[in-house]
């Protein structure tokens, strides 16, 4: 979906912050570490840390550098939440890396409005084979006012309801097909001394996933589209209030593990609760499959991990095939990079993120690349059932809605995350949530 009404975005006030210091960075794959642009002949990129995805990202850089000795890429890695703060600060301070990694959407729109990333439309027109490699639905979040400012890359990552099969067998229950089924499971697991749902509430964006699906299942994707387009009082729509109320009903029923608002996603503590049999379910991105496989002992290889799309809401307007999450991740080129660095960056887009080694790496850790024509590679993988299910879930969804904190502007997203945390802490009512968010519509 193309960005709309991007002129309403207020971005510069958020990013004009103090510069980063070199001491905050840790570099890999050679070269010196430091904020922003490295020396001539080298382009820089900042990536997310965390295994096993970090190794695949390193592979992309290392294989590119081996075949491009005269135009290297230097990578620096940050934890998820730290990265989001540091990259906005760096862009506003004129210290951004050559290649800006992100999730597209509202943040990208802000960069584009401020002239901080290059318009790549004509370059992709000159390289139609590269553009044709990427699944069509991924381009929307990289596009602003009909112009391409970022290339979709890495993986498609819908949000999935994971569940612990042995715990369901222990209580004699089946995975929930409807929201009513899910609510009925809460007392069953609590009475058995098992937390119904693991949630890393301190990270906030993990809590947001529950609202994203409830909004979709109750009101359909049009419900958030009204928010996205800045329609007056969009958050006060009766369907929105119903979804907000349902979220609090789940909290009040004891649906989430005790102390969920102190659990942190960056430490994978929420995943550990699932695979150590402390919690029966977890709503999370497909990227967690790889870390649960590597950290959870025999939980994944032994077949104890179950997964499904979010349950339907009886009488709801959203199609049960709909999903939410990240259609892809995105790379933009910093407008203040040198011409030489920009050329290296474009070569990296061509040869680095789309290489066979990188595609095989993503599939190898249980994730699904955002590229066409990979069905045979998925079927031949170590996890064929999982990766094929993710691929088909993404491609067959009637709506694949981008994560809200990426679709909205950074300012509106921060307000959203703050209010979601308060909603799940039961410190505000659905009506107060709606009023607070209506006040920042269009920002």
From TrEMBL:
Residues 1-27 form the signal peptide. Keywords: Signal. It comes from the Bacteria. The keyword Signal applies. Coiled coil: none annotated. The keyword Transmembrane does not apply. It holds the Pfam family SBP_bac_1. This is Raffinose/stachyose/melibiose transport system substrate-binding protein. The lineage of its organism: Bacteria, Bacillati, Actinomycetota, Actinomycetes, Kineosporiales.
